[in-house]
Structure formats: structure tokens, C-alpha cells
Amino acid sequence: MIYLNCTMAAQAVEGAAVTALRTVFQRVRQAAERSGRVADDVRVVAVSKTKPVSLIRQVYDAGHRCFGENYVQEFIEKAPQLPQDIDWHFIGHLQSNKAKSLIAAVPNLSMVQGVDNEKIANHLDRAVSSIGRKPLPVMVQVNTSGEISKSGIEPSHCIELVKHVKFGCPNLVFSGLMTIGMPDYTSTPENFKTLSRCRVEICRELGMPENQCELSMGMSGDFELAIEMGSTNVRIGSTIFGPRDYSKKQQQQ
Predict the structure, then answer these.
(1) How far apart are CA 124 and CA 141, in angstroms?
(2) Using CA atoms, how far apart are residues 182 and 192, in angstroms rounded to an integer?
């Protein structure tokens, strides 16, 4: 009876995740329309850190294909248990000594959102080359809030890092900019504006069309505002999957 109750509870959570996903897409569509765009202009990354494979599979079976993870060890354990047509994103700061294991273990890794220094860019570039996979799209992470606790390069230095990725790392593809932003943002989210200004400066410097430089900004608490301010990539976790349980997260992650 206890096992049955646990199974039923798990199924209820999984059903709730699919319902939440549909609601998220509706909110994305509405926010995109408010900014004069269409929902297809915005990628929704379902961030599944700390969540079980069974729950991810339920969302996958509902038709979603883009998922994100934050912890390397958890990522390389979960990814092989799931379909190969998932577009995986690694999100956040990546330790350079884990770049090779991530690239080798997740062949369907579609993007790394979190290159914040030349060292990690170089490690990723070599890792991609060593296994002979196609060039890996990456986003440069910018610390737009000035919070010491957040990773990311300072806005004043992001052009230099983008140039290094674009011209010094032949196995990487510069795809855009990413920021986490302020957890207690106000109605004037300067961090989003700062990232947009960085894009303008980078595209002017490199002669790139702005539509070739993505903006990854916006999470569960602020994704609609981020979309209205130009985000092309939102990272939605707890709104889809429910609250996080970090108690089982391994120390090595």
C-alpha cells in the first residue's frame, strides 16, 4: 500500500509538470506578443536539475525536447538514460577540469550557457576537438548585477571574451550572451538592459546582425519581463518541475 501511494504521488507530480509546461508556453506566447514577437522567437529550456529521470521523461513524452542541467555529475548520470534527440543545455559556471567529461558523456549537448573566462573556453575547445564532434554552440555569461556570488564576466570585458571564443576557439560557436540577473529585481531590471547593451556593442564591434546573438535571460520568477525586454532564451525550472530538493545533490557536483 505504501508503494502504491508513492507511485500515485509521483504520477500526480508528473502530471502537474506537464500541465505547468503548457501554462509556461501560454505565458511565453503572451509575453512575446506584448513585445511584438511570436512565441517561436523564444526558446524554453526546461531546467531539470535535482529532478528524477522519470519526471524529465514525462515532460519529454509531452513533446518538449529542450532541457537544461547545472551540475556535471548529475548531468552525465541522467543524460544517457534519456532519448538522444533531447537538446541538452549546460547552464551556469563550468569548472574547467570537468569540461572534457561533460563533452564526452553527453554527445547530444546542444549548448553551454556559461562560458565566463578564456580558460574554460579553451578547455571546451580542446574537449570538442579531442572527440571529433561538431563545433559546440556556447553563450558567454555576463555578470550584469555585480553580485559577487554570481559567475560571469564583467560587462566591460565581454567583448574581449567574445572575440576569444569567436576567433580563438575554432571548435566553439559563439551564439549569444547569458545572464542570471538579480533575484530581487524591481520594475526597472537594469541587468536585462545591461545584457542588451552588451549585445549592441558586440554586434557593432564584430559586424554581426543582432538576431545572430541570442539573449538568454529570464527564469521562473522573471521570464515574462525578460521576454518583453528581448530575451530569446528563458530557463524555466521550478515553475515546471516544482520546488528543488538539494538534499541529495552530490558534493562533487
Answers:
(1) 15
(2) 9
| Burial profile 3-29: b = 16 or more Cβ within 10 angstroms, e = fewer | eeeeeeeeeebbeebbebbeebeebbb
Of 137, 94, 136, the residue nearest 114 (C-alpha): 94
Cβ count near 160 (within 10 Å) = 11
- Give this prediction's pTM: 0.90
Distance (Å, whole) CA 102 – CA 207: 32
Query: In the structure grid, which three cell numbers stand for residue 211, read together?
Result: 538576431
CA distance 48 to 56: 7
Cell of 165: 571564443
Whole-angstrom distance, CA of residue 72 vs CA of residue 101? 8
Could you read off the pLDDT of 227-251 as tens digits, one per residue?
A: 999 999 999 999 999 988 776 554 4
Residue 34 to residues 22, 29, 170, 194, 226: CA-CA distances in angstroms? 19, 9, 38, 21, 12
47-85: pLDDT as tens digits: 999 999 999 999 999 999 999 999 999 999 999 999 999
Give me 102's grid cell. 561533460
* 35 CB-side CA count, 13 A: 21
For residue 103, give Cα distances in angstroms to 88, 89, 123, 138, 243.
Answer: 11, 11, 10, 13, 28
Return the H-helix or E-strand segment holding 136: strand 136-141
**Which cell is 197 given?**
547593451
